[in-house]
Specification:
This protein has 247 residues and is α/β, with parallel strands linked by helices. Helix content is 43%, strand content 15%.
Amino acid sequence: MSDLLVGKTAIVTGSSRGIGRAIALEFARQGADLVVNYAQRRDDAEHVAAEIEALGRRAVVVQASVEQGADVERLFARAREAYGRIDILVNNAGIVRDGLLAMMSEDAWRSVLKTNLDSVYHCSRAAVRLMIRQGHGQIVNVASLSGVSGRRGQCNYAASKGAMIAFTKSLAQECGQFNIRVNAIAPGLILTELLDDVSEAMLDDKVIPLQRLGHPEEVASVAVFLASDMGSYMTGAVVNVNGGMYM
């Protein structure tokens, strides 16, 4: 336990599993109270909330499909009801529907853009409106290596994450005057259920200089840095957490 986020409240979208879960738990270890968001897996979200409460912090579980504006309004209303304010937003919710572009359906294209990018628009807009009134806030966007360098078979995913990075830089310029910092993390191959079928060939040092996959907790620690006063002079930054794959 530490105190980097003591007295802070945070919304982490898509925090019932994977990277979002790791971020929510690490925020709690650092003293924050959480809003745990999920779209479909309530049992997983309730389990995360129980883990947070076991750490001595408060947790509110809210179902919301964050690509939908009405759901986001309800999410933030519940957060304000519980805590009165929101100091940190982590835009983590996202999906993957990989495939070569020549064979990619329009549904695969639109669903990824809607979930991964529309959610950032809706949640960030709601957060910024609140944070301007508060006079402070931090937004951390979980982008991807694919948004930095592209990846074969991920035109839809790379487009959504590349746009998230551009969004991060633009919003950072808009919000600096209001004491709101906006940064992004670009994870690479992280050990979550999305990578259950990753080939051992991906561990070749020409692919990952550190010669191993990453852990969700390694992304979470960077999220804490960006959301805390340790990152107080950082905004508009994109932090690569991908074992050097971006090179």
